[in-house]
Amino acid sequence: QVQLVESGGGLVQAGGSLRLSCAASGRTFGIYGMGWFRQAPGKEREFVAAIAWNGGTTYTNFAESVKGRFTISRDNAKNTMYLEMNSLKPEDTAVFYCAAGRSLVLVTTQPPYWGQGTQVTVSS
């Protein structure tokens, strides 16, 4: 169906920046929303950010913990979504997962498609 592949994870010092990418392939015709979740050891997977497009309008949504620090965008030609992470904190350390669905609401709540995840480690 839909395949999502994340990349860009790695080790970065606190205060640094990292850019994650998520390339979508397969039958993406019905995909109008993509987003990011993260899961730290011992914690539940949590929503980070999402982007959706409809009728020429782009919508974005961010978790309170990342507002002002993270930026989400999408390159339609490349069918790739990006997450620019700035001012990273040790608490941002987690496996970041790419997600996709039919709408912003679906992506932020119960996305049907997931990537394999990419590790982000922020050292102090």
Structure commentary:
With 124 residues, the chain is mainly beta. 5% of the residues lie in helices and 56% in strands. Strands 2, 4, 5, 6, 9, 10 and 11 form a 7-stranded mixed β-sheet that branches. The chain starts with a strand and ends with a strand.
In angstroms, what is the radius of gyration? 14 Å
Give the averaged pLDDT, no decimals: 96
Q: What proportion strand?
A: over 45%
Instruction: Encode the helix/strand succession as letters.
Output: EEEEEEEEEHEE
Distance from first to last alpha carbon = 40 Å
Q: Report low-confidence residues grouped into runs of 5 or more.
A: none
Structural class, from helix and strand content?
mainly beta
Count of runs of 4 or more consecutive helical residues: 1
Profile the largest sheet. 7 strands, mixed
How helix-rich are the residues, as a percent range? under 10%
- What is the number of beta strands? 11
Global geometry = globular
